[in-house]
Prior knowledge:
Layout: E1 10-14, E2 17-20, H1 21-44, H2 50-76, H3 78-83, H4 98-112, H5 120-145, H6 172-194, H7 200-216, H8 235-260
Antiparallel strand pairs: 1-2
Helix pairs in contact: 1-2, 1-5, 2-4, 5-6, 5-7, 6-7, 7-8
Amino acid sequence: MLTYPHMNPVFLKLGPLEFRWYGLMYIFGFLAGYFLIYNGAKKKGLPLDRDGVADLIFSLAVGVILGGRLGYVLFYNLSYYLEHPLKVFAVWEGGMSFHGGCTGAILAALYFIRNRDISFYQLADIGFSAAPVGLMLGRIGNFINGELYGRVTDVPWGMVFPGGGDLPRHPSQLYEAFLEGPVMFGILYLIGRKAKADGVVFWSFIALYGLFRFLVEFVREPDAQIGYLLGIFSMGQLLSFPMFLLGAGMAIHRYRRGARQL
């Protein structure tokens, strides 16, 4: 069994203000996204200067935060928030959904390009190829917070998490950080070099996230207020498996379309 590092989730405290690692990871993720998107736009010849990329990052940040929060409210704890509607705005108490955040990011991108000569797929391929960096950092933030831990296990690398009882559990946050971070980033990079049609990278991201999340959820502790659905599946799995099917089908379709145009 490995020892959980017990890092303080708060890295800086100034009077009543607390600055948390999890929030810092979001900032690092958006900064990394800025540089990756700017370089990607230059390589593809998209009409995006530094100010344009900054505006895009701001739009995506708003979409991710609003979509992530609303997604959590709707998918994971609707009954609670119906009884306590003002708690919807208490984002400092936690509660973000990737699926809602992803939807928010897509809507933000569509809003951003409404008056620009950029297609959605051109922008989405660049933006979502950078997303694994932010996902990896977010999962590391979950690990530092000691949240979203895995199920009880006897594997040698199991950890006892604060709030998770006395038994060792899978460090599922690190599994997701590895799969959704460097593994996905590398696969999308290779796909982007080979694919000839716009949209292949975007839909490949949707498929890969859906697959990785579906698999990791088998060792991740389900949300206490929901438990298991259909006997063995978590809410995350029921939301992720359709992503995998849709993403894989559309990625293959877009890839074949590009091959026919050669």
